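Suppose a colleague, Dr. K., hands you the sequence of a protein chain of 195 amino acids and asks what its three-dimensional shape might be. Before reaching for any lab equipment, you can write down a predicted structure in C-alpha cell form. Begin with the sequence itself:
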Amino acid sequence: MANVEKKPPPSEHRWWVDQGKSREPAKPAQRQAPAGAVFFRSVEGYDQEQACEHLTDLNLKLLAQAKPAPGEWAYLPLVAERSPAKEIEKVKRALLLPPNARGVLVDSGLSLRAIITGTPLHERVLEFNFIEEASFDCWIRGEWVYEAVFRNKHELLQRAAELLRRYMEKDVLNDESFFDAPHAGGTLPPARTEW
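The predicted structure, expressed as C-alpha cells, is then:
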C-alpha cells in the first residue's frame, strides 16, 4: 500500500485568508461621548422661564395651602421628619413679619423654607431657603427680581431682617439704588415700565 500523505485543506496554507469572517457588514465603532454630554442631554429642552414660573406657582400654592393670617406665621410640614423647634423659632425671630405680611414656614425635615407675601397678596413673594447652601429669592408682580446665595444658613439668618425690610416694607420700585444693584442672572432689572 502506498503511503498517502494527507494534505491539509487549502485555506490552512493561506495565512492571509481571514477564516473568522461573517457575512454581516462591520458596524462602525461607537465614539465615546465627550465629557459632560450626559449633563447636556439631561437639560435638553429645559426652559428656565417655565421653571421659574413653576417655582413661583409652587410658592403661591404653599401659601394658599397654609392660609396664614396677616402678621402671622403658618407652619406647613411636608414630611414626617421635622426641623428642630429651636431652628423654627430662630427663623421666626429673625423674620419679624410686618402687620400686612403673611408667612409660611415650610418644613421638609432637613430644610426649612420661609415664604412671605404682603398686601396685596402675592404682589411680592420672598423666599428664604435655610439649607446648607442658603439662598434668598424675591418676586415682584410675578417678575423674579433678586437672588442671593449665602455660605450657609447662619449667614442668611443674619441678613434675613435686612432683606425682609428691603423687599417687603420699602417701596423698592421707587428706590433708585435698587436699579443699580446686581440682580438675578447678573443682569439689571427690567425697566420700570415693564412692571
